[in-house]
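# nightly structure sweep
# worker-07 picked up a monomer target from the shared queue
# config: single-sequence mode, recycle default, output format = structure tokens
# input follows
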Amino acid sequence: MHSDDHDLLRAAEKLAWRDEDDAAALPLPETPQSKGGKLRAERLSPQERVAIAREAANSRWEPAPKAVFGSPDRPIRIGDTKVPCYVLDDGRRVITTAGMTDTLNIARGGSMKKGMSRLELFVSGKLIRSFVSEDLLERVRNPVKFKINRVVAYGFDSDTLIDIAEAVIRADGAGVLQRQQSAIAFQCRLITSSLTRIGLIALIDEATGYQYKRESDELQRILEAYVLPEHRPWTTAIPPDFMKELHRVHGWKHTSNNRGPRYAGTLIRKLIYEKMPSPVLPALDARNPSNEKHRRKYKHHQFLTDKIGLEHFKTQVVSVMTLLRASPDKATFQILLERVFGKQLTLDLGEEKQANSSKAA
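# output follows
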């Protein structure tokens, strides 16, 4: 035997200790399944073991998406089962092969067919096959190959778990499952009753820590949609009628330059800017900070994008102006605000708080 084959043979013997349902998973403590894997490997001829090892070695260097979030010690829990899961660099959420069979309560031991995984053997069985779509069967036959660091692993996208569970429930409802498969049907009902597709994705994102990256990306998309990197030339964004109605409702004297109490800017900030998506106002404050005299060089609306930011701003102005016109006084205006925007929008600003002018937008 060639020296390279000796090396591959030793690699095959090591590989045989791994669970056959998740052959490329990280090494685990010895279990009945791993002992069975070793016994099966011992029955292989040296040539067969070399072929397996050669295939594993080649597979290791084939391009595959990488797990960028998740680890073996951060599984999700479905019922009493700990399920290893990962988020790949292409955004897919995957559950490992062993995690999938454990979650569905499918035994790893028992009879097998050459070239078929335990999961494929189950879904292609004559009792359940008619309830499994061609697309689902194809996904089970071709699990997602990915890498955890330098280790090749296999798994299934999160939708596959829900799809299999729903197929099993349909088969059970038709009364075609065997008695010993009732535990699988029970587990599938537990899965579908406690998880939606979106809920499962959220669970994986939380367990792997991907939710923080996702939230950061989402915030960045909002800011790009709403906020300009540089200010635009000044234009009138709040119509004169808005200021007239605001002064009338609050009993302020209106002048031609729209100047009222110094905290009027805070009121506009609360009525308009705070109703935009949460990251927008802090970003505007950062782009357009107040100086030592509590004044800003620009108006916040000069930093809003044309199609989304400024349009949202104008829509909010119109909505508030409609309520102002319908209000004979401040108390009525407050009632209408709460009816439209909820009680969180309270205008108890304190009419003596002159210092609030620093927040004028």
